[in-house]
Amino acid sequence: MTTQWIDLAAIDDIPEDDVIGVDSAGKSIALYHVEGTIYATDNICTHGNARLCDGFVEGHEIECPLHQGKFDIRNGKALCAPLTDDLKTYPVKIEGSRVFIEM
Question: Which one of 26, 41, 55, 100 has the fewest beta carbons within 10 angstroms of its own beta carbon?
Answer without folding.
Answer: 26
